[in-house]
Design a protein that fits this description.
8% helix, Immunoglobulin-like, 3-stranded antiparallel sheet, mainly beta, single chain, 4-stranded antiparallel sheet
Length: 143
């Protein structure tokens, strides 16, 4: 009997080991999962879109840019997993396609190279004293 009383606290500590240790399958993420490719084809760019996971049906908004200028907007209604395609006009220069789901960016695809300033051209940044003449440029009464 004494032995049982001594073992009782140990047995009480083991009572939770009989519950299932597997918490089960976690819920799927609320964000869609897509695989997107942008291919140049002559004077057009072709978007190949494969939807792998979609939490609920909705619109995928596509915004097509050349440099910073918005050229075209399209919307694809997605109901579930599957393949989709869209085409956009392609000219010279840097192009960017942004996909928005529920107002938030989902992907960005680029074609071409962005026009960046030439690193060899060093602009005169000045020293903050442009247009001032003479040697003393401090305010009156300031050392």
């Amino acid at each position: 009997m004494r032995l049982l009383l001594l073992l009782l606290p140990l047995l009480a500590a083991c009572r939770y080991t009989f519950l299932p240790l597997d918490p089960g399958k976690p819920p799927p993420p609320e964000r869609p999962f897509v695989v997107a490719r942008l291919l140049p084809e002559g004077k057009e760019a072709r978007l190949l879109l494969k939807v792998e996971r979609l939490p609920r049906p909705g619109y995928l908004h596509l915004k097509w840019f050349r440099e910073e200028a918005l050229l075209q907007e399209k919307a694809l209604f997605l109901e579930g997993p599957g393949a989709h395609e869209a085409r956009f006009p392609l000219g010279s220069g840097y192009h960017r396609l942004v996909g928005l789901w529920e107002g938030r960016p989902l992907f960005q695809l680029d074609l071409g190279s962005p026009s960046l300033p030439d690193p060899e051209e060093v602009e005169d940044q000045g020293d903050g004293e442009e247009g001032q003449e003479g040697g003393d440029h401090h305010a009156p009464g300031h050392p």
